[in-house]
């Protein structure tokens, strides 16, 4: 219902269902990590539940928006909500970049006898600090055979993501100016570039595992490599799905030049993912 200047949503079943589905997915994931495939059905059921709730919940939001129920106050609420969500994502990746920085700047030099905690070198007296760490100190851990060159597939993916931000901006400007054909074309190109990025990263992961010995078990280098690039790849997949939904909505005529925050929020998210990749390219691949 609409009262005064603020939209008050009706009672919704989606929050409690989302909590139950997410809880099932986490329980299943924990069971898989501890007991193996025994928890796979619960994890899969929870994941399907989360996806279904998200789809149906966003459907209701779209219907409410299309029904003219939202006003300027609600628009500000959506903008603040999206801004805080992206801030939480910034902190999410900041933790992983911080872990990489800590390992390279503090932990490895300490194990090599440098710094205030250089006594840690007593653990592995023959260890020599270097990055990328191809020779982990523990004899029970085998490091990668070599590292991926940043100037091949990673550089191609960097150019793809930067280009996708440009095409998305053109699509956004076209939508704001009322050029729907332009918006549809350039948004289609953006979705295609996102799919190209995902495909190339899949090829890169195969090369890393099959030919370079870079795995999750290949010491701290392998762990941080897949932690950072893997979570970023997941965000690219999510972002591509979001943009595909926006493309479908543009084809359906859902947005106007003055009312298209759903499109704008998707653009914010995609640009954030692009910026994170530039940091990954520099600090995971190049330096």
From TrEMBL:
Single GO cellular component term = plasma membrane
Keywords associated with the record: Membrane, Oxidoreductase, Translocase, Transmembrane, Transmembrane helix
Listed Pfam families: COX3
The biological process GO terms on file are: aerobic electron transport chain
Q: Which InterPro entries match?
A: Cyt_c/ubiquinol_Oxase_su3 (IPR024791), Cyt_c_oxase_su3_dom (IPR033945), Cyt_c_oxidase-like_su3 (IPR000298), Cyt_c_oxidase_su3-like_sf (IPR035973), Cyt_c_oxidase_su3_a-hlx (IPR013833)
Q: Which residues form the Heme-copper oxidase subunit III family profile domain?
A: 2-287
Listed EC numbers: 7.1.1.9
Q: Which family does it belong to?
A: Belongs to the cytochrome c oxidase subunit 3 family.
User: What does the UniProt entry say about where the protein is found?
Assistant: Cell membrane; Membrane
State the organism named in the record: Halomonas lysinitropha
Q: What is this protein called?
A: cytochrome-c oxidase
How is it placed in the membrane, per its record?
A: Multi-pass membrane protein
Q: From the Swiss-Prot or TrEMBL record, what is one GO molecular function term? A: oxidoreductase activity
Segments traversing the membrane: 16-36, 42-62, 83-103, 151-171, 183-203, 236-255, 267-286
């Amino acid at each position: 219902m609409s009262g005064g200047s603020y939209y008050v949503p009706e009672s919704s079943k989606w929050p409690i269902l989302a909590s139950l589905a997410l809880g099932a997915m986490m329980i299943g994931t924990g069971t898989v990590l501890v007991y193996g495939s025994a928890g796979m059905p619960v994890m899969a059921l929870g994941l399907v539940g989360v996806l279904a709730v998200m789809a149906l919940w966003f459907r209701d939001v779209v219907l409410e928006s299309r029904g003219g129920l939202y006003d300027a106050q609600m628009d500000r609420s959506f903008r603040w909500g999206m801004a805080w969500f992206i801030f939480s994502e910034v902190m999410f990746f900041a933790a992983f970049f911080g872990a990489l920085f800590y390992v390279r700047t503090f932990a490895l030099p300490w194990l090599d006898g440098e710094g205030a905690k250089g006594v840690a070198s007593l653990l592995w007296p023959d260890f020599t600090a270097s990055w990328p760490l191809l020779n982990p100190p523990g004899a029970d851990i085998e490091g990668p055979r070599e590292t991926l060159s940043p100037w091949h597939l990673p550089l191609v993916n960097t150019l793809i993501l930067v280009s996708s931000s440009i095409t998305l901006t053109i699509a956004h400007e076209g939508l704001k100016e009322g050029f729907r054909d332009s918006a549809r074309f350039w948004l289609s190109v953006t979705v295609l570039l996102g799919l190209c990025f995902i495909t190339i990263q899949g090829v890169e992961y195969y090369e890393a595992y099959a030919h370079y010995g870079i795995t999750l078990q290949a010491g701290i280098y392998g762990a941080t490599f897949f932690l950072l690039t893997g979570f970023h790849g997941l965000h690219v997949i999510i972002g591509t799905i979001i943009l595909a939904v926006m493309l479908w909505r543009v084809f359906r005529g859902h947005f106007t030049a003055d009312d298209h925050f759903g499109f704008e929020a998707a653009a914010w998210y995609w640009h954030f993912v692009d910026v994170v990749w530039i940091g990954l390219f520099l600090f995971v691949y190049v330096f």
